Amino acid sequence: MRNLTCIVCPIGCFLSVEEGELGGDGFPVLSVTGNRCPRGAVYAQEEIRSPKRVVTATCAVIEDGAAPDRSEYAPRRVPVKTSGPCPREKIDGLLKEIYRTGVKLPVKAGDTILSNWGGQGIDVVAVRSLG
Ligand code: SF4
């Protein structure tokens, strides 16, 4: 039995998940209780079979006339986030790429910084405008 908190809506139902026998897809059949709506069961299924997270981080700003400092210690940074959830096992690689990426200003909130990262269909977009 595993316990999870559903994060799909602010109610945050406390879910209990029981793993049954293997189903036709090779995964155990899950029995979910505690969810107030069907979205909780879908969330539990995804969280146990292939957990994903929206990733937030920052990219270095490439200052005019200065040698680009793409390190995580660059003084000015652009906050970014993924356009959708990223498989958890890919997050380390994605963060390395984000920290290697330098952004020239100006940048507007919503601008794409990395497109279709790793062929995952995930963009990394700016969260804030910087001029
Ligand atoms: S199970 Fe439904 S009601 Fe409960 S937190 Fe998840 S989405 Fe919200």
Class from secondary-structure proportions: alpha+beta
β-sheet strand percentage: 35-45%
State the CATH topology of the largest domain: CPE0013-like fold
- The number of helices is 2
Terminal-residue CA separation: 51 Å
Described by the principal axes of the CA atoms, the overall outline is: elongated
Q: What is the CATH H-level superfamily of the largest domain?
A: CPE0013-like
Uncertain segments are none
Number of strand segments: 10
Description of the molecule:
The chain is an alpha+beta fold and 131 residues long. It folds into two domains: 2-49, no CATH class; 53-126, CPE0013-like (CPE0013-like fold, Roll), CATH 3.10.530.10. 17% of the residues lie in helices and 38% in strands. It is built from two helices and ten strands. It has helices spanning 38-49, 91-100; strands at 2-5, 14-22, 28-33, 52-53, 56-62, 77-82, 86-87, 102-104, 112-117, 122-126. The strands form three sheets. The chain has a five-stranded mixed beta sheet with strand order 8-5-6-10-9. A three-stranded antiparallel beta sheet has the order 1-2-3, with helices on one face. Strand 1 (2-5) and strand 2 form a beta hairpin. The structure holds iron/sulfur cluster. The site of iron/sulfur cluster (SF4) has 11 residues, from helix 1. Iron/sulfur cluster is lined by residues 6, 8-9, 11-13, 35-37, 39-40.
